[in-house]
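#onboarding

Welcome to the new folks! Below is a worked example of what a typical request in this channel looks like: someone posts a single protein sequence, and someone else replies with the predicted structure as tokens. Don't worry about understanding the tokens yet, we'll cover that in week two.

Example request:
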Amino acid sequence: MGDWGHRLRQALRRRRVGKLYVLALEIGVNESALTRWKKGDAISTTNAIRLCQVLDISLDWLLLGRGTMDLHKPATTSAADDLLVEQVRALPPEAAASLSDFLRQVAAR
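Example response:
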């Protein structure tokens, strides 16, 4: 996906950050630091953590390109999802294998 500066620019667009001045104030840095970071220049760990907290993005994703921007957020499931998982777990092994084969075929289309 490119360097970390590219990911920062992507995060700024997705989070609709138009003015760097306000973001810089929230992080406690000069606006010029944000401009340099957007180019991929070095950032301290402390500032990277603050930046990720303010933008609500994953530190692993920003710095290393691992996972997704929202990887840090816990996965949520609905009551219907939980019920479905419970029902699938209760299936006999042969039925579970058949269902699994069916789902693979559907996904392959």
